[in-house]
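Why do we care about 3D structure at all? Because function follows from shape, and shape follows, mostly, from sequence. That is the central idea of this module. The next example makes it concrete: a single protein chain, its amino acid sequence, and then its structure expressed as tokens.
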Amino acid sequence: MKIKNKREYYQKYDLGLFGNRALIWDSYEELLKSNWRGEVCIRGKGNGIPRTDARYNVSFEDIRKEIECLKKKGIPEEILRFNQSMPDNFLSVQGEVIDYISGFELTYTQIKKPMNLGLKEETRFARGLIAKMILRSRMDSSSFEDLLALFELYPESAVEFSTYEVCVGDIPGRNTVFWEVRNY
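And the structure:
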């Protein structure tokens, strides 16, 4: 299977078809009804807002203020999506990996910041067995098996991930979240 566009990706992501992911809420009201009171990231649904307008590590008390700032920039609240902020201070490795017939190709960073910011500061590359060993040594066994299962279902797709030194996400006992699976 191939995922040809962001819309198709989000349909599958919203159904939880890519394994462990950050806790997510499709609206501010949904977030308020949840038990989550930690920091959040504010992003757009689909291609809703430019990456430069995404907000990271927003305290629960400041979410409404950030929504209002985005609205002043012409970004309607209806297109906003929220996810739990990840514990960047526990980041181990993050990036994207593709499993080609010749082996893994990994683009990654070890900078302890949200992925876009970390990759801007440091971008590393690894191929083949070295790439596989980096991932196998950082991901818990269940997360690594989840990655292999994604490659079985979506061969030659890019898989974006973040791996931590602690358990994270909506599936207990995993240290890796999968952000995106794509062929676009």
